[in-house]
Amino acid sequence: MPDQKTQIVVVGGGAGGLELVRKLGSRYGRKRHDIILVDRNLTHIWKPLLHEVAAGSLDANLDEVGYGGHAVRWGYRFFNGGLERIDRAARTITTEPLLDEDGREIIGRHEIRYDYLVIAVGGISNDFGVPGVREHAMFLEDRAQADRFRQRLLNACFRTNHENQLGDADARVRVAIVGGGATGVELAAELYNAAKGLRNYGLEVFDESKLEVSLIEAGSRILPALDEPLADKAKHELEVLGVRVLDQTQVVRIDDRVVHTSDGQAIEADLIVWAAGVKGADAIATMSDLELNRMNQIVVRPTLQSTRDDRIFALGDCASCLLPGRDRPVPPRAQTAHQMASHVFANLVRAQAGQPLRDFVYQDHGSLVSLSRFSTVGSLMGNLVGGRMFVEGWIARMVYMSLYRMHLIAIHGWVRGVALIVVGHVNQIVRPRLKLH
Length: 437
Fold this sequence. Notes:
Low-confidence stretches: 381-387
Helix content: 25-40%
Largest sheet: 6 strands, mixed
Strand content: 25-35%
């Protein structure tokens, strides 16, 4: 009987998980290892791009990555399913039944053995227990949600255009965005970019003046990850576009098309987007007995191993990692997931070689926020600039765009990654500016 292959299972095909399986597959192949990626979706799209998908500025069909083809290219296996349970004693995971749109079962529950397990399922928006959020607000956590928002946005724009043509000059598309972090700010700006272009797509009397966007932030200012001068710069740019920025404004309830705040405001909106906070998925608490923090994130040691099982790692937004000498866990950012994926890969190699594992070292390379084609602001830190430097304008825009290019190279390798970057430039020229279907 041949020796059993070492089986490494990665659950979650986001930026960190997909990069990890590419590296594992490239390193080990299929001769002595069985690398398996488990995800309930069939394709991957970089999460920081979802606001562009939602606004119609990006055609996700051209930028998404199919897990099946990627797996064949890089020597791992893809299993379509969502994580339901982890059995640490048996070293197995059980996946949920896969259902079609009518609720009929496609694939039943499936059990997968592992020697090492990596949880990279990402996070979800934190509703902080505010009544009505789950019932009346939309989220931008995956491709399906972004597509749903785009369709509802376009319907509202077409409706408003028609009402204007019939003589109702006061008709507007009203959007309320709760959360003044990067997602909320970037979506607000991208909506105005999309509105500027709709007149060229059959909406003769619609433009950005028919759009009313309210950005609601409970904290003292938007973009708390940026230095205050940069956050103030971004706020000014948004207000110039027409965004109503409401900081120090706490949402206490959401009804159908109405956002209620603690200061008594009732903000009416055709579309409500919740983009405030990140936490682990609620289902994580029932999957196993791994230690979780109050945000439902898996608590990991500095090696990124779970506190209760050396063979289980976690990375990205679903992990809570408090490094020695720090008073706060590593922040949930795209750069964090990328760095964690590289570190978990290195530690998996060491673990199989019987070598001691190393602690994760987080390098903060700064933060950048894109206000669509209008502006980009942020700061660069660390070895990139030999300290800290504020950037804005075209320099910041170029650096911001390079982040996605680095992601492409991380998941596709240099040759294919560079080829896709070139194709992306061509698509910007030949494909429509907006996706309306």
